[in-house]
Amino acid sequence: MKYTDFQYIISPPRMGRYYIAMANNSKKAMTLYRSNLKLSQELFTVISCFEIAIRNAIDRVYINSLGNDWLRNSAAPGGIFSNPNCRIAAQTINDEVIKLSHQYTHAKLVAELGFGFWRYLYSSHQFRAGGQILLRVFPSRPTSTPAMQYNATYIFRELQKVNLLRNRIAHHEPICFLPGQPVKNTIYVRQNYALLLNLFQWMSIDEAALLYGLDHVINICNDIDVL
Q1: pLDDT tens digits for 120-172?
Q2: Which long-range contacts (CB under 8 A, 24 or more apart) does 115-118 make?
């Protein structure tokens, strides 16, 4: 496809940063755009696997502690989230229960709640309301020291990084540049990819086996670097 046609479809403002990053080389600009799409697809697959893994792990911890229908019960009057500090979590759960209506099952409710909901279970109010037991999800995390605490606050902040990257990809924003600059760079992706692998490992999950055949993130990063 000619660059003029490609740019017309994608839009000049969107292609502008790719064109600048590739020193006004239109062919390389199109190649970088396509490479960014490949990288986004690969990384979103890894994030999706992590999202499913962490929500299921959280669910198992709370089922063992609070019972099989802990989510719906937690948002009901007298539930662990039925207090002003956790009202958003409770409202989110209740909204999804209403949407599911007669098709409700606990498993469907778990699947309907987004990554942001699960991340916020590590925020201070929800973490305390849930009995401060969710660090069990990460049994292999590093041992805390006076200088570094691998506590719920730390986990919450790490999950926020994943959430921001997830949303960036979901909204079709590029991930192959330095933040805010039309400069080709894969450091942001590499750092967050390493974070995801660490989180899998802290959950005692063999991420290499889980992602076998699905994960080509580093290969695509390498291709972008030499473009």
Answers
A1: 999 999 999 999 999 999 999 999 999 999 999 999 999 999 999 999 999 99
A2: 115/51, 115/55, 115/162, 115/163, 115/166, 116/163, 117/89, 117/92, 118/51, 118/54, 118/55, 118/58, 118/159
